[in-house]
Amino acid sequence: VVAATRQGIVGMTQTLSPDTVSGYVCTTKEPLLIADIGTDCRFPCRASTYRTTSLASVPLLSGRGNVIGVI
């Protein structure tokens, strides 16, 4: 993490897994729309804490096509 609103996570690293939303978007370099997070396996325990049923995630790509982040 290079920049964040929570300063405590700046400098941290996390292993990417295609089994998570951000890991999937990062490894495929494709946007992802989940219509119902309650039935999606990438949200096994957190689904009950969200107040929405859908989620969109997109990769941030450099001019050379490298992933520089995920929203």
What can you see in these coordinates?
This protein has 71 residues and is α+β, with helices and mostly antiparallel strands. It is built from 1 helix and 4 strands, in the order αββββ. 11% of the residues lie in helices and 18% in strands. It has a two-stranded antiparallel sheet. A two-stranded antiparallel ribbon has the order 3-4. A hairpin with a 5-residue loop joins β3 and β4. The two termini are 13 Å apart.
In short, what is this structure?
Helices cover 11% and strands 18% of the residues.
Quick tags:
71 residues, alpha+beta, two-stranded antiparallel ribbon, 1 helix, 11% helix, globular
Arrangement of strands in the largest sheet: 1-2
- In N-to-C order, the SSE pattern is HEEEE
List the total number of helices: 1
The coarse overall form would be: globular
Q: Could you give the topology of this structure?
A:
Layout: H1 21-28, E1 32-34, E2 55-57, E3 59-61, E4 67-70
Antiparallel strand pairs: 1-2, 3-4
